[in-house]
Amino acid sequence: MKPDAQSPKAAAPAAERLAGGSRRALDTIGRLPPCRWTQALLTRWGISARTAVIAVPYLWLLLFFAAPFVIVLKISFSETQIAMPPYQPLLEWAGERLTDIRLDVNPGNFLYLIEDSLYLRAFANSLQVAAVSTLLALLIGYPLAYAIARSDPRWRGILLMLVILPFWTSFLLRVYAWIGILKNNGLLNNLLIWLGIIDQPIVMLQTDFATYLGIVYCYLPFMVMPLYANLEKMDLTLLEAAEDLGCRPLRAFASITLPLSLPGIVAGCMLVFIPAVGEYVIPALLGPADSLMIGKVLWTEFFNNRDWPVASAVAVVLLLLLVAPIMYFQRVQGRESGGRP
Amino acid sequence: MASSAPAPTRPSHPWNDPALEPYIRIERVSKSFSGFVAVDDVSLNIYRSELFCLLGGSGCGKTTLLRMLAGFEEPSSGKIHIDGLDMSGIPPYERPVNMMFQSYALFPHMTVDQNVGFGLKMEHRPRSEIADRVAQMLKLVRLSEFAKRKPEQLSGGQRQRVALARALIKQPKLLLLDEPLGALDKKLREHTQFELVNLQEELGVTFVVVTHDQEEAMTLSSRIGVMDHGKIVQVGTPQEIYESPSNRFVAEFVGSVNVFEGQVTASEAGRMRIRCAELEQALDVLSNAVAAPQARLWVAIRPEKIQLALQPPQAASNWTRGLVKEIAYLGDLSVLLIRLESGKTVRVTRPNVWRHEEESITWEQEVYLHWHDSSPMIVRE
Amino acid sequence: MKDKASPVRLSFLVFGFAFLYIPILSLVFYSFNRSRLVTVWGGFSTEWYGRLFENTQILDAAWLSLRVAAMNATGATILGTLAGLALARFSRFRGRTLFTGMITAPLVMPEVITGLSLLLLFVATEQAFGWPEGRGVSTITIAHMTLTLSYVAVIVQSRLSSLDISLEEAAMDLGARPAKVFLLITLPIISPALVSGWLLAFTISLDDLVIASFVSGPGSSTLPMVIFSKVRLGVSPDINALATIMVSLVTLGVIIAGVVMLRRERARQRDLRMASASDAS
């Protein structure tokens, strides 16, 4: 049997009230001249509604998402110039004829990235920071997601809402909150001194520790959400079966719950790791002044040194580094959402 | 049953009248989905005011055939005519056909009367006419006082009736019903079956019903088309399908049956003598089937057509002997599994006529199985 | 099996939520501090709220950000709905793989890359076609739409895949043409998904610092850009006040949504009782 169309979940009640008023409006809109004209025009051009539905967002993304990467690639091969824009054109019309086009491919920027160990270290450091933060986020997020998924169903919605709530408040302000907590005369140091654990403030702000903390804090909801979604739909009778067969709870967790939640773990880790590699705001505010995060390096090259070609080269390398995890994420995402053929 | 008491509005057996033009003509229709053949060269005629059932297991192509009638799928080859009109290339919204969906597909954001009136609204009928016809339709399905409710506020049976009313309000030439009773519980289903038949006879609309439930098909239909692997394997009245299945698949799919492999030893007009290795005595069968001597064929006997006795029958044929292995008491009848000497297990049903019957037959008892010479059916592989 | 209040699970919850909320609560707490030194308590005061509302730079930036966020959310919802529709309903078309890739990649793409590449595009098109003339509200909006339409598309797609397709077929069967089916059946039913998509796109836009920094021009500083430049110089109490206002607004919204959902749930329970009561007929 097919899932019942009238099941409460399918018929989200919010739709109904909205729809009650909007249906008549939509009906009228559909009959207004402009709508009819558009339809007639599309028909005359032989463009079906289907084509239009696909083409509009497709063209938008091609223009504003795919094309920019081509330009980044192009500029990463050009030379810096003191001008606006501060790079040499890659294609030059040297003469009248088409054959006079001179292609200036200049791999200098990439060679520069290899020669100056700063960039290599920045890439390595970014990957390491992202990996460690992802692991920490998993260590905090998994128990939290697990506890929510196994709590009383009446509370689950509220608890989940509490996880997402910080995500809706400003990211920047949440990072800012940690400055107040971590700085030398901040909340945490004051507390530790008051408790008598330390008598001199520990330097916590502008350290790698603060960077890790900031990333874990800001990306925690991204870790918890997919984990929760996975753990919540798990069949609890599997655990009962395991215990019935003589498996102790901890063992049952390790041999049943954990392997089954692997897709959630992978999705959560990807959602934290990939953006964290290129993170700028958190290391800029919480990390050490000379912190080597690649996002920060790119930002500095671009805004402070105004070296657009090198910034572009950094972006190209960063993108190449992330292509594999991004494609992997897409496959996971596709599997999760792919219900229909 | 519907077939035994046809309404005066339709000729009793239109399919036997060669002069009558079929209302729906399906001509050599095939449909394949990326290499998989869902419907394979099906030809079928359905007559006006028939209640035709497409019966088959899941994946047999019955739903695909129905969806081609509705216009949701185009045939890969072949043609469909409805009331003389070629339907190729005509989209669902322009066909004189309506459908009742398995999930009912009631629009969750509309009330019952908005759901029922949707089809008329799409025809831009005047508001007053829509209101009148909706009221009339709701009265017919006894839902007048639920007009302002949302589908969510209705029970399963009520939703089913809303879906029916919505599909009927445009007075379609043909109503398609996809597992119309599948979502109802058993008790309600039986009641609704008869309601559906009555409504169909009252309105005279041609119904095509898809179902996997043979009991439902038997109760509802004037004729049944049994489908298997995308092909129609037999078309006939419920009685024809049950009593004279054309092949082994139909015999086994509709009801249960005991099948024996046999060899023709003698045949004369209307009679045939068959030797089955699994049975002790030869079969003496009344049959019009033509078979060459020595031909191998299949003989099927329905469980209710086998009688049990404790003494050997007098006849020289049409009986065998076995040990009772299982007895299942089902209330109205009992099912017995009897193992023959050849190792073959035979299924026999006996009605429980008396309330406190002294059970004369018990486990591990030797019994004699015998049957009338009209009971065995000769079936093809 | 389900022990009601396992202490282990309770401690997970307490620790997790403490980690999430103590920083936010500290912001709120110190926004009412008289002292300029944010972390030294100098008595209760609402002085910083007054200061905040005198700060025209912040107010202008906030207004600009709200405008951009609203335009972005509307545009992204339209484009994202089309994209979600294409993904959910048209299983095969040329370039579908590339399309899916361009929808999911922005979800995880580091913002520095998106920001830089969009800026370079705008510079190149300005050179080539004279568009856009300088950078500001329009370029920020376009950049944000490109990012957020993916979020809307994913939400809409998942809602559409869980929608019983026979609802649309039923409407078509009753005589509605495809465009009508979409307007009268699909759109009203998926409208909650559109609302949440719109809100998400709005929030992301309101919150974005990196992409906006790349594609904005002189004189078009968004709120996050202003906050960032202030915060870089250290903590300042009026930012605490601003944070408190934002947190309160979001919390209020969530509470309202919660109450509405609770009411709906009660109404639904009532409906179910009504349905089972009328089952006899």
UniProtKB/TrEMBL annotation, chain A:
Compartment(s): Cell membrane
Membrane topology, from the record: Multi-pass membrane protein
Any single Pfam family the record assigns to this protein: BPD_transp_1
Chain segments annotated as transmembrane: 52-77, 127-146, 158-179, 209-231, 252-277, 308-329
Principal cellular location given in the protein's record: membrane
SUPFAM superfamilies to which the protein is assigned, alphabetical: MetI-like (SSF161098)
Matching PANTHER family: INNER MEMBRANE ABC TRANSPORTER PERMEASE PROTEIN YDCU-RELATED-RELATED, PUTRESCINE TRANSPORT SYSTEM PERMEASE PROTEIN POTH
Protein name per its UniProtKB record: Putrescine transport system permease protein PotH
Lineage: Bacteria, Pseudomonadati, Pseudomonadota, Betaproteobacteria, Candidatus Accumulibacter
Gene: potH
UniProtKB/TrEMBL annotation, chain B:
Protein name: Spermidine/putrescine import ATP-binding protein PotA
Record's function text: Part of the ABC transporter complex PotABCD involved in spermidine/putrescine import. Responsible for energy coupling to the transport system.
Main EC class the enzyme belongs to: translocase
Family that this chain belongs to: Belongs to the ABC transporter superfamily. Spermidine/putrescine importer (TC 3.A.1.11.1) family.
Gene behind the chain: potA_1
Organism the protein comes from: Candidatus Accumulibacter appositus
Assembly, per entry: The complex is composed of two ATP-binding proteins (PotA), two transmembrane proteins (PotB and PotC) and a solute-binding protein (PotD).
Signal sequence annotation: none
Keywords: ATP-binding, Cell inner membrane, Cell membrane, Hydrolase, Membrane, Nucleotide-binding, Translocase, Transport
Single GO MF descriptor: ABC-type polyamine transporter activity
Automatic annotation (TrEMBL), chain C:
Domain ABC transmembrane type-1: 62-260
UniProt-listed InterPro entries: Bact_Polyamine_Transport, MetI-like, MetI-like_sf
Main location (coarse class): membrane
GO biological process terms on file: transmembrane transport
Pfam families found in the cross-reference section: BPD_transp_1 (PF00528)
Spans through the membrane: 12-32, 69-90, 102-124, 136-156, 181-204, 239-262
The UniProt record lists the keyword Cell membrane: yes
Bilayer topology: Multi-pass membrane protein
Key words of the record: Cell membrane, Membrane, Transmembrane, Transmembrane helix, Transport
Record family assignment: Belongs to the binding-protein-dependent transport system permease family. CysTW subfamily.
Name of the protein: Inner membrane ABC transporter permease protein YdcV
Species whose genome carries this gene: Candidatus Accumulibacter appositus
